[in-house]
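Re: the 310-residue chain
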Amino acid sequence: ISICDTLLLTQKKARQDMIRDYACRPEMSEQGIAGLIREYDLPVPEIYKKREQMIKAAVLEREKRKKPFCTLPFDHTLEAENMGGNIRYGNEKAGPRAAAPVCSSLEELSFLSRMDPESGRMAETLAACQMLREQGEEVVFQMSGPYTIWNTLIELKQVFKAARKTPEQVEALFQKLEEDLLGLLLEVKKNGVRMVSYADSAGGLSILGPRMLEWTTDVFTAPFLRKAEHILGQEMVMILCPKTACALEDTGSAVREEIALPEEMTYQKACIYAAGKARFPAQMCINGGGSVLKSKTLQVIRLCRNEIEE
């Protein structure tokens, strides 16, 4: 191996070692819904599957949490279910969860149906979002990343193994999922939603490790967000999980900036204010975003290399 190659490997290893994690606290959305199910005897699974019940629960959850927006869907299995995943809808103690995986290999995963925003629970969720917007509500649409989606469909160790031995196989799956998520984002926009949150809880540093997290950021996350940025336009924001933001920043895919706020406000209200001024708020978890930003500034992520990969 040449001296130049050795230097590049050393620099790459040093960059991987600098990737920060973000200590998230399990708190808001689902716990709020579980509590509301008990308090108001909300019907399960109807609150996850029927637009009228979704709307009722979303407004109740907003009021209970004193949030400036409604959040839909209430769980992180929507995309996987739409692709054919098995879901258990839970009860008053826990929300929807993955049942048995439907795939035992990456080949089977590659043959699953494409996302269809016009069918099933996804169609009902988008309709509920539109109706809430027509009622004057702000809405945050929760979008999941690849590992969270795949975790419902297959044992993730199959994906991790393939990423080491046949990375091109996983890259093809990334490409397919990117197209589906961009199509979903476009439908969210068509239904009047101005705010999307993006998180991939099954794809954090503690699960992937620094090497695979850097690879995922380079191959999927940054290219996906650069394409998503064009769909967001000037009307929408995509609120990033701080874990995703740290990975982007520490791998050189993005830089952190600040925008001025007109007054002290909560992080959640600041994310609403950011629409049209920034694309990717990323200061803290949106589910725990009731904290007041006394600095009157909001931290956002600006992606590097804004060109869309052809």
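The first helix runs from residue 3 to 17.
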